[in-house]
Amino acid sequence: MFARGTVRTVPIQPGLNQIVSLAFRGGLDVDPVSEITVTSGCTEAIAASMIGLINPGDEVILFEPYYDSYRATLAMAGAEAKFVTLRPPHFAMDPDELRAAFTSKTRAILVNTPHNPTGKVFTREELEQIASLCREFDVIAISDEVYEHLVFEGEHINIATLDGMYERTVTLSSLGKTYSLTGWKIGWSIAPPELTAGVRSAHQFLTYAISTPLQHGAVAALHADQSYYEEFIAKYRNWRDLIVDGLTRIGFEVYKPAGTYFVLADHTAFGFANDVEFCRHLVAEVGVAAIPPSAFYHDPADGKNLVRFAFCKDEATLREALSRMSTGLKSR
Fold first, then answer.
1. Could you give the CA distance from residue 252 to residue 244 in angstroms, rounded to a whole number?
2. What band does 10 get if pLDDT is binned at 50, 70 and 90?
3. Which string of b and e fits 45-80 if b means at least 16 CB within 10 Å?
4. Is there a contact between 133 and 108 (Cβ–Cβ < 8 Å)?
5. Distance separating alpha carbons of residues 65 and 88, to the nearest angstrom
6. What are the pLDDT digits (tens) for 290-299?
7. Domain spans of the chain?
């Protein structure tokens, strides 16, 4: 995954060493004792990073649509969100819009790749553009990488590995997505000591400690051999292709995801006024649950034509959902 440098580990709990090996494979020089913090899932790692590193009045750049906890935790920190919108069909980053979001008040930018809910995998060129602006404006990058092993096209690149970025990056991930153990709530942050100190100052008063038995279970999961990851991505790629093809046949305009286990689609062919109305109809009349993405935009109108489906289900469930929609939805 990462091409430069070597990984230095110290003789401590094997789980921390394995986090380093997986996150910075062949890459950076990391001290697990002073630079890794175990958190209650990645959601708590996000909160600890925001509260511990962001001050009231700071600006933080978010790519939208965004994971909903980002904006909530910024509010807890008393910070202001600035938005860079990723638009269909490709959800490409607009370099001019990105540069315009940086000001003298910008403290951090939050990068999520692979990206929830669009399924976008940020390219190296896009990450280099972000990194350049971080260096120019002396800005922290908070990098949410929980879907790092769910990449179907492209490659996952950690922004911390780019020149001059490790010292200003907080890398976040968790056990939940890669090992299908979301309820265990085992996450982590990786950052240089001065940034880790901020994360830990907040973490100390959010959860303090994470379930010890589940941490031991996490160590076992982290030592899975390479065949696990190959089977994992093959399974999810099959489910991705199944739901994308099925939704297309039903009449949706589908934006095929390059990563994650979410897919966005345009529902306007079915004649509903917005995503909330459409999703309510799906649940009440069709028997399928989906998420209205307008909740992931600062202006809900930007998401009103979209619907988000999750394909982290077994094949029989996905086929049943497609069958119900094929029968219960009609183009208007």
1. 9
2. very low
3. bbbbbbbbbbeeebbbbbbbbbbebbbebbeebebb
4. no
5. 11
6. 999 999 999 9
7. 14-222, 227-328
Q: Which CATH class is domain 227-328?
A: alpha beta
Which residues make Cβ contacts (< 8 Å) with residue 328, sequence separation at least 6? 285, 286, 287, 288
Specify the amino acid at residue 124.
Answer: R
- Which H or E element spans position 19? helix 14-23
Query: Domain 14-222 carries which CATH code?
Result: 3.40.640.10
Provide CB contacts within 8 A for 17, sequence distance 6+: 9, 10, 32
Does this model's pTM top 0.85? yes
* Residue 303 tokens, joined: 């998401």
CA-nearest of 296, 19, 261 to 147 is 261
Per-residue pLDDT tens for 235-292?
999 999 999 999 999 999 999 999 999 999 999 999 999 999 999 999 999 999 999 9
